[in-house]
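Page header: ASSEMBLY MODEL / two components / 633 residues total.
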Amino acid sequence: MSDEVAIKAEEITKVYGGSVLAVDHISFEVKKNEIFGFLGPNGAGKSTTISMLTTLIKPTSGRAWVNGYDVVREAAKVRQTIGVVPQEYTADEDLTGWENVQLVGDLYGLPREYTRRKGKELLQMVELSAAANKKVEDYSGGMRRRLEIAMGLINQPSVLFLDEPTLGLDVQTRAAIWSYVTKLREEYGMTIMVTTHYLEEADAYCDRIAIIDQGKIKKIGSPKELKEGLGGDVVTVGISGDQEAAIRIVEGVAGVRPEPQDGLLRFKLRDASTALPRLLEALAGKGLRVSSLRISEPTMDEVYMEYTGRSLREEQATSEEVAAIRRTIRRARSR
Amino acid sequence: MSNQTFGDSPEGVNNGPLHGLWAITNRELKKWYKQPFVLGMSLVQPIIWLALFGKSMNFGALFTGTSFNIPDLDLPKQVIDQLSSQLMLGTFGTTDYFSFLAAGMLSFIVLFTAMQSGMSIVWDRRLGFLSKLLTTSVPRGNILVGKALSSVIRSLVQATIVLLLAVLLGMQFRAGLTVWDFVGTYAGLFLMSLGLSSLFLMLALRSTSWESQMAVMNLLNLPLLFASNAFFPVKMMPGWLKPVVAVNPLSYATDVSRTLLLGTTSSSSLAFDFAFLGAFAVLFTAFSMFLSWRYLSR
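Prediction written out in full:
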């Protein structure tokens, strides 16, 4: 494993109960000081992969290393050098924010004086200093997630794993969390592996993204590479007149049959600079008038659809519902 | 955050095999003493049992508290009192049933506290804290042992309250009692509590249902209590029950308390009592550590 690599997975696989294949022979590398995103729907294998890399579960086959340590044979060393912010809230609700941070410091065997100083800095970073002595049961969802981040950083990890860090949070809190993540990478050289199914977040903040579906990595690359890899721009055109004729013309030029959406035709077009004039000419030749035209880069959803055959948008809604249900259950339990 | 770096382990980190053990124990204790209702209930429980049960089950009063006599014989009261004393002494090893029961109550309160230890791991699993615990570098074996130790401390605190209350209500110690008798009594209770707490934590290790834990507790608590010498001497029990009593750690811890505090004699020697309790504690603690390693990683 090269010095520049923080995480390496080689053909790791997880089979539950002898038959459920959660992760299917996946291999990838995460470079040091990189924000690496795992993008995929619920059940794609994202959390299972994170759990294997963070030593919570053992791979059924294959090997993986974090910071040069084997996740099975040197699990204790891996744990000492990583920080983990799991998908679920893990803080003890009966304790205060500060007591939780101190508890995690003690669990790592950190000197009390160090934990006191570092904990204070981290709570300041996640803007929880004022609420540090409040019980966690009185925290909002956003405060809890920020506390989880502080708890995940107390042992000064060089690699931080974040499993769905922004799931179910409001827009402001999501932006705040990404600002901490970006800061950790930029100012402190941390390597960050994050799972998400928010396409915009993966696009905006990750250096590289792995698209994972049904336990397999479908594609890895930077957001730009992934979008460019689709080979063309996305054209959205509004045409007045015979729609069926317009669709046939577009199909002739673009090579794909566009599906009408809200009165507009949206399709991918290779070499738009030369193909578009041809298209407009062909439409004019049939007496069809273009009422609107927009050329854009493909979105991450289109990238995702290209490699998985499905849209991730619906998954986002489902996951937010799941997060809302979890919150309700937690509130009910704590009453 | 200006001058900190990530990735370099801080100075003085304790990566020894016991690191995090006290943190786990201390967290459990905090959850106990920081919740006044939970703390209050756990202190009231032994008081209710001892005051109500202990004082109402007063066998000694069968003779002395009534005008008991045998028709036509009209035995002198002195004879009846003597008869009663000898009967009590022969049966319970002491003339005072309340003192006999109070020693048994020490084991009883330890049993009830230890039984609840399993619930904490079920809730930690359900509320996500166990996930956090497992991502840290705390040795897996320390997770159950830390929880068992907190249960031991809680049960010994409760046992102390029972003992103090028993003294206030009239528990009579043997003549020539020394501080070592108390040390021995607590050592016996400690070993039993450690073994029982480890046992109930093991039973809860894979469980996510607190209902099933409650069912286990309800199934085992009274049978374990009555199939021991806590309330009645073993010699009064039917033959088929005696083997169960013989493997029940409650019997040995109670025997230690009675021998040291009340001066009763029993069929089992103190050395054997401690050997049994020691083996019970070591075996179940070691087994719980093994299962922690085995089952807390999937």
